[in-house]
Amino acid sequence: MIPRRSAQASLAFSCAGHAYAHIFEPIFFIAALVLPGELGLSYEEVLTLIVAGKLLYGLLAPLAGWLGDRWSTVGMMAVYFLGLGAAAMGVGLAQGPWSLTAALTLMGLFGSIYHPVGIAWLVRNAEDKGKAIGLNGVFGGIGPALAGLVAGGLIAASGWRAAFVVPGAVVFATGLLFVAMVLRGGVVETRIDRKPEPAASKGDAVRAGLVLSATMLCAGLIYQATQPALPKMFAERMGDTGLWMAAGGVTLVYLLAGLTQILAGHLADRLSPRRVYIAVALIQVPLLLALAHASGLGLVVVAILAVSFNMAAIPAENILLSRYAPAKWRGTAFGLKFVLSFGISGLGVPLVSVMRAATGGFEALFMLLAAAAALVALAAWQLPPERGPAAAE
């Protein structure tokens, strides 16, 4: 039996880790509005500096998950906090494009640990998995939301370097606190679920794995492409308000969108995660089409709704993945998910750069993302029928 104190601590550190996992990319995308003048590069060239880090963020996730399964979950979380904090401070201290690229790549390397290890750790310690994943998802939304305030405030006060050094120091300090908790027994390692579920059949597991691979790739592409596009869209379509409108708009969108995951997680626990997954994908289609052409206040409203429904899929998706993956391989399974969601889908960043350079705007990009949302709904329809109480809802 997992000690209650350790389970509560795991929820707290997992939530903090999720916020940290999502705060630095948006900070970079906001800093990218001023970096061309600092580095002598174009905006599109600045965006390419983070591509290697984004690819590692996803591609190394299976290795991180495997190490969590086979070595130590809490050990990997300690490496995550300390490594990510140090790498972020390194970004702020970088001199020139090459050293900046190297530091961003290290951020991707250490950042790859969180999702396969932290989410699997959370699920293992949770009784109401959807509720815990939903709460954890709120913190994933708080990360990008804080990024707007952190980046906007620190860049205005002390320059773009402070926007990485200050939060990097906070993450590193969290790692020191986490190590202290582990050494004192406040956080303990466990290999069993606090609330186990019946194992899925081999056939259902294979079918779900294939379907979820397709849906996670498309949903990840939507998230990854929207995140760098929004700051530039706000800066261009909201009038002559510049950096503060981009930062404030990103903050508002991701803060409100993140909060929706509590409700989404509750619905996935109480109803059918499969039906929730399909519904939120379908709703995204018209919203992404509207986002292609929106401007002014309408842009903010549509962006909030589009990102909210994209993020609302996460609790249902994680419940489905944990349900069909064997418990002893769950970290590895989540790692494979994030190869798709953050590795291959990380190509959404160069996609933004290429499509904007080719078309001069974002309209074609969001039409493509609307098609990806439709594919998510179509593929999710092929998931195995619900088992247990959810099937009767």
The CATH class turns out to be Mainly Alpha
Distance between the termini: 31 Å
CATH topology (level 3) name: Growth Hormone, Chain: A
SSE string, helices as H and strands as E: HHHHHHHHHHHHHHHHH
- In DSSP terms (H or I, runs of 4 or more residues), the helix count works out at 17
> Low-confidence segments, ≥5 residues, pLDDT <50?
388-393
What does the average pLDDT come to?
87
Estimated helix fraction: over 70%
CATH architecture assignment: Up-down Bundle
Shape: globular
Q: How many E-type strands?
A: 0
Instruction: Classify the beta-strand content into a percent band.
Output: under 5%
Give me the secondary-structure category.
Answer: mainly alpha
In CATH terms, the superfamily is MFS general substrate transporter like domains
Count of discrete domains: 1
Gyration radius, in Å: 20 Å
Main beta sheet strand tally, sense and closure: none
